[in-house]
Amino acid sequence: MGTLHFLADGFSIALQWHNLVFAFLGVLIGTAVGVLPGIGPISGVALLIPVTATLTSGLGPEAAATSAIILLAGVYYGAMYGGSTTSILLNTPGESSSVVTTLDGYQMARQGRAGAALSIAAIGSFIAGIVALIALVFLAEPLSKLALQFGPAEYFSLMILGLCAVSGLAGKSMTKSLIMTVLGLLLATIGMDTVSGVARFTYNIPILYGGLEFLTLAVGLFALSEVFKNILEPNQDGELAKIERILPTKKDLKDSAAPIARGSILGFFIGILPGAGAIVASFFSYILEKKISKNPEKFGTGAIEGVAAPESANNAASGGAMIPLLTLGIPSTGTTAVLMGAFIMYNVQPGPMLFTEHPQIAWGVIASMFVGNMMLLILNLPLVRIFVKIIETPRKFLLPMILAISVFGVYAVQATTFDLILLIACGIAGYFLAKNDFPLAPIVLGLVLGPMIENNLRRALTASNGDYLVFLQKPISLLFLSLALLWIIVPLLLKLRGKNVLVNDES
């Protein structure tokens, strides 16, 4: 069966009424998450994992996993759409990848062109999302077939590359991000060793034999820590710009066409790279447009190209980031690491076997992203004025809601007092770590990849009779390890030479 046949099967799943509802809820909540400053996609996805577990409780295991991932993926790319709204109207990015949109978007709003900026951001996001999805459709199967050729040594090295890539570009300090990565790997070792049966770091506490629950840590670190941050460090919102005409003029469309095309392609390829993410894509596309423009001086004063290019790039990057997750089982950003944790919660292992063992999930999710992008275009053009109202939601209503979803969501899945205590401890730890510039995404990545790294390390060493050189003797493994080393060394050398290194601030 060809790729298009698989995609057609995916559409038959994505267009089932309950999956349409899940996709709609995902993109609706994602847009709201993007619109609200301070609550990024990573917090939104983490917060909704326990909610999906409750919503899909009446479905079979395969159908439940499909519907849950459809909703969570909708939150991820929906947040990319919504992030531009506050950047343009309030000069405050809703999520980190929309930072660069504030430069020209807010200037356009001050000139009375907020509607044009918002509509171009929505159109650019839609086109970029579709471009990234078409590329995902045609690259997913060949890449997963290639990955099937990998042995344990290649997988071990690939996961080390994933860890180094995200750690190398996460946060302002590489040392702090590496500390967080190691902490995540250490937390992953807690519990009963499945091979030897030895209890590790459990201190005779029975509840620790099963290890720490990924869901509790993710919700605590990302969602609850945001609640503490908003309570302890309340932000003063700026003045909200008014929206007049929503639809862009012919000149706006003409001026934006080429930046949207370039932003979509650039964003997609940057999104595939481990660790780069949407924020790096949006900055690079903005810099590219400014470099090739005949009038670079107009950037920063309300140039529509300065909105079209970064907004297209960050959406294309979120589509591109799904490729390493679905085909190789390697998350390339913090949000995809949380998504991978959700896959594993449903006993589904992302990677090359996903397309052969669970084609319903793989193609159902990909097809739902086409449907979700269409829903987002409809939501973000005529209904943009409604989403603007969300910005005005008082924090005294929003924060208790997030707190309640976090606590009840974790308790509904785990049903232990220990997990509630762990949730609050992770929330407090997440707040203080983020306050001191320790990135949180590498912890989750270490926690998710830790058991797989250990498993593949053991298998590779067993096959080679304990010879560690096996990782250097296999060419693909050697290539991955060399790239991992470069990913750490190159930013370090650039910093030592006084160069600025663009980091992925998603965490």
UniProtKB/TrEMBL annotation:
Regions crossing the membrane: 20-51, 63-83, 116-140, 177-195, 207-225, 265-288, 325-348, 360-381, 402-432, 438-455, 476-494
Organism in which the protein naturally occurs: Brevibacillus composti
Pfam families xref list: TctA
Domain annotation DUF112: ranges: 20-445
Source organism superkingdom: Bacteria
Highest classification ranks of the organism: Bacteria, Bacillati, Bacillota, Bacilli, Bacillales
PANTHER family, sorted: TRICARBOXYLIC TRANSPORT PROTEIN
InterPro entries xrefs: DUF112_TM (IPR002823)
Name of the molecule in the record: Tripartite tricarboxylate transporter permease
UniProt KW keywords: Membrane, Transmembrane, Transmembrane helix
